[in-house]
Structure formats: structure tokens, C-alpha cells
């Protein structure tokens, strides 16, 4: 009986397909969040592969995630970029959500950079701000490691005492300072979605020590730690979740805010890649 949604051979098949298409020597992989696709404009693009063409890759159902894997060069380094990710609220398991991270590792990627759109529960954070992950609190049910008995996936009891690479975080902090970019450093709360939180839930999330809340990223980070892939993550704050003055969420406003904040994120990621 198959007890997980992925197998090692499926990861291997996906990686081999990409190698056959010419995806070789990629040093950095980037996962782009909602409304944050313009990063690829700074690259020299060599290939753009729709997810349905890649064996065993999930297909995003979120309308703002285009579902294409972009391969090219940035600052002399080969880079892989996911335009669109997968979420638990789409019906995918945590193992499926994080499947691309395993493929990146098998391709020899050395660093993983992740972005997302999130709401702030820290009253200091305003719309359009960006937050570097110092840590996370996972309120999603389940783990991407559940059922993976094949030792080739990595160890089962993955240490998460430092899920976000300290060296990458230090580099991003230094770049932000040099560029005059305000970069908050905080704790991300990962929830299942797709519904937004109630006022009581926002109070609770703030009370337990989180600064921002969203519906992605943590499954990918857990797997990155399992396979030994150093990672860093940044949230673009697209809405302010003040339970005492909570306003209805407008998806068009979220996308507009993400688009406006993109240049800051792109600068940080581009300069980091150049410095690696």
C-alpha cells in the first residue's frame, strides 16, 4: 500500500526530465509568492517550462500563480524560479506542496529563497513592508515528512532549531541596510486557509508571539531542512490584521500592494544571489 503522495522515483523522474530539458548547474532556487512574479524580469531567461509538462509536478489552482518554472542566469549564476506555488487549501498534501524542493535538491541547488504575501499582526508592520523570517509557528495540520519511510528522502526527525539559515539572514540584513530598505525580522504563523482569520484568531496569533500570518512556505522550509538546503524567506505585508480595526480583505488590493513592494524584494534577492 502506498502511504505517501510522493515517491523517491517520482522526484528522480522530475529532476531527470529537467536535466534533459537543459536545466543544469542551478545554484539558487527561488519560490515566488502571490503577486511577486516580476523577479524573473531581472534574469536572462533560457527556459520557461509549464508545470504540467514536468512529470509529477502539482498544478496550481490559484489564479494569481502562473505555474511556470523559469531557468536562466542572474549575476553569472544559474537560477531556477517557481512562478507559482502550491497550498494546502488547494487540496494538496504537504508532501506534494514541498515536492519541488526535493527536485531542486536532486538537481544540486545550493540555496533556496522563498517569498510570500502575508498579513501583519504586529502593529508596527504596515502594508508594503517586508519581513525576514527569523522563525515560524506552524498551525497547519500534518507534516510533509509523514509517511516518507525511504531513507533516501533524508532523516525522519528533522531538527528545526534554526530553520532559516543564519548566514543568509545576515547577508539579507546587511544588503537591506546598505540599500536603505526597511527589513523587519519576525515570526511567521502558517495557517491552513483559504478563509481569513477572525478577530479572535488574530488576537491569538499575536498573543502566541507571531508577527505575520499566511498560508504557505512552512512545508517547503521543513523539507529544505530535511535535505540540507539552506533557505531564507521574506513576507511582503499586504494587509494589516488589527483585530480592533479589522477591514474586509480585497484580493485586488493585496495584489496591488504586493506589486508595489516587489522592487524591494527583488533588490534583496538579486543582490544576495550576486554575493553568493
Characterization of the model:
It is a single chain. With 276 residues, the protein is α/β, with parallel strands linked by helices. Helix content is 30%, strand content 24%. The protein is built from seven helices and nine strands, in the order H-E-E-E-E-H-H-E-E-H-E-H-E-H-E-H. The chain has helices at residues 8-21, 94-97, 99-106, 166-179, 199-207, 218-226, 251-275, and strands at residues 28-32, 44-50, 68-74, 77-83, 111-120, 130-138, 183-190, 212-214, 231-240. The chain has a five-stranded mixed barrel. Helix 1 (8-21) packs across helix 3 and helix 4 (166-179) packs across helix 7 (251-275). The model has no long low-confidence stretch (mean pLDDT 94).
So how many helices? 7
Could you spell the SSE succession in H and E letters? HEEEEHHEEHEHEHEH
Report, as a whole number of angstroms, the end-to-end distance: 44 Å
Backbone CA Rg: 18 Å
Which shape, going by the Cα principal axes? globular
Strand order of the largest sheet: 5-8-7-6-9
**Helical residue percent band:** 25-40%
Average pLDDT confidence is 94
Structural class: alpha/beta
